[in-house]
Design a protein that fits this description.
Elements: H1 7-35, H2 40-57, H3 61-84, H4 88-105, H5 110-123, H6 137-169, H7 180-190
Helix pairs in contact: 1-5, 2-5, 3-4, 3-6, 5-6
Length: 191
């Protein structure tokens, strides 16, 4: 908004971060899959993970996008609260409650889904749940990651970054017609 970063650099940064998160998510799920952790409790962990993945790819575009808006709104609020906290406990609580809310409310976050859906794809060959045939690489992107990412961007920018910029960072905070002298005059008249 202050034009300190051009669109090319912003896009490049976002692409690197997005891809980096995807790579790390895959590495973690490979570790979980090949360590057999998904087989805990007589495969209940794996069945639940597969069921979560299937439910995520069954969303329509608009539902996924709207859930993405809510998720990143809360994630960005969590980051903001953590940064504003002075003590360790303030920072922890600042992160905990918004993240807990996004999970409990069933919102969708692209970075979390970079783990859940590929984990389901890994488990698809070993386990089965209702609707598992809908879980494909294309449904992961078309039904979830693309709309959820769009929603995450909207949620973070429109509901946290833009209001923060508008209130605290923009230059010329007062409209041209509302000069300091006019404000002083209005304040004096109301006393």
């Amino acid at each position: 908004l202050e034009k300190k970063l051009d669109l090319k650099d912003l896009s490049s940064n976002l692409a690197i971060v997005y891809l980096g998160n995807f790579i790390v998510s895959i590495l973690i799920l490979v570790l979980i899959y090949y360590s057999g952790l998904w087989q805990l409790a007589s495969n209940a962990v794996g069945i639940k993970a597969l069921d979560i993945a299937v439910s995520k790819v069954k969303l329509d575009f608009w539902t996924a996008m709207l859930r993405g808006i809510g998720a990143n709104w809360l994630v960005c609020i969590a980051i903001w609260l953590a940064i504003s906290g002075r003590s360790g406990i303030e920072k922890i609580l600042g992160i905990y409650f918004p993240i807990m809310a996004f999970v409990v409310l069933g919102f969708e976050h692209s970075i979390a889904n970079m783990f859940f859906i590929p984990m389901g794809l890994f488990l698809k060959g070993s386990l089965s749940v209702a609707g598992v045939s809908q879980l494909t690489v294309s449904s992961m992107f078309l039904n979830n990651l693309i709309p959820v990412t769009i929603g995450n961007i909207i949620g973070g920018v429109a509901f946290v970054a833009f209001p923060y910029w508008f209130v605290y960072l923009r230059k010329n905070k007062m409209p041209a017609q509302l000069t300091p002298k006019l404000v002083e005059k209005v304040v004096v008249q109301t006393k």
